[in-house]
Design goal:
Blueprint lengths: L1 E10 L2 E11 L4 E5 L6 H9 L6 E6 L2 E2 L5 H8 L2 E4 L11 H12 L4 H14 L15 H13 L5 E5 L7 H18 L2 E5 L3 H7 L2 E6 L2 E6 L1 H4 L5 H7 L3 H14 L4
Parallel strand pairs: 3-8, 3-9, 6-7, 7-8
Antiparallel strand pairs: 1-2, 1-4, 4-5, 9-10
Helix pairs in contact: 3-4, 3-5, 4-5, 5-6, 6-7
């Protein structure tokens, strides 16, 4: 579990995050949503230690990350897995070597053990057959699955995903969502996903935090999104024709018009 208490972040006189309180639950897919410029990316950077909060606490299972020393933070980061927006694979390394890279850097395993572990993770994302290929030889969706395999290779307690569906078609996005959700439950990880994809919200949004202009505007889950009366949330979620039609049908059903 990750808990943030009264978290604020300012750059000189500009306050980007203001007094945010939230809990991200273990074994669930926790989504952070918001319009561009809302502060959700800054929040994610604070959570992983790329930025330091101006005020407030970030508690990893009651351990205050913001107050840790440099050595403690290095050890803490070994408990984190990261999936970046553009997959961020090494073009000069094979798929298996990309997944194995964190093991080469941070584990005490033998070479044979590292190879075995990397291949186990590739098998988990159904990409073992592509282990000898290079990133440029596989599709964007496959690259994201390699990134997921690399992110879980060290058995992290916490998994951070920055726009994992960026640049993917809807069908492939669904595959990535389902994979992240199943891995979260299988390994009992605290997964936090930064996204603008409303299909992800409705598909795997077990805990959804909506940030608006640096403030916590709403928190709920995929089941309460549709019934929310928060106008700012509705403006974001129902920006697409699909969700407007769904909302219209639900309202008509409530009124007995269908």
């Amino acid at each position: 579990m990750i808990e943030i208490k009264h978290l604020s972040k300012a750059f000189e006189d500009k306050v980007v995050l203001d007094d945010i309180n939230s809990v991200f639950e273990t074994g669930k897919t926790n989504l952070i949503i918001g319009q561009s410029g809302s502060g959700k990316t800054v929040l994610m950077k604070n959570l992983v230690g790329l930025l330091t909060p101006t005020t407030g606490e970030i508690l990893y299972d009651n351990r205050d990350f913001a107050k840790m020393g440099k050595k403690e933070k290095v050890n803490m980061r070994r408990e984190m897995g990261m999936i970046f927006q553009g997959a961020a694979l090494f073009d000069s390394l094979s798929v298996r070597d990309n997944v194995q890279f964190p093991l080469d850097m941070f584990s005490n395993m033998t070479y044979a053990q590292r190879v075995k572990r990397a291949e186990e993770c590739l098998e988990r994302v159904n990409l073992l057959d592509a282990k000898d290929k290079y990133p440029g030889e596989i599709s964007g969706g496959m690259q994201k699955r390699v990134a997921i395999a690399r992110a879980i290779v060290l058995n992290p307690k916490y998994l951070f995903c920055d726009e994992p569906n960026s640049g993917l078609d809807p069908k492939t996005s669904l595959v990535i969502d389902e994979l992240l959700s199943s891995i979260t439950k299988e390994y009992n990880i605290t997964t936090i996903i930064n996204t603008h994809d409303m299909n992800s919200v409705m598909g795997i949004g077990e805990n959804v935090l909506f940030i608006y202009n640096g403030h916590k505007e709403w928190q709920g889950n995929k089941d309460t999104v549709m019934s929310s009366t928060n106008k700012k949330l509705n403006d974001l979620v129902f920006a697409s024709d699909l969700f407007r039609k769904v909302k219209k049908v639900e309202m008509e059903e409530e009124k007995g018009l269908r």
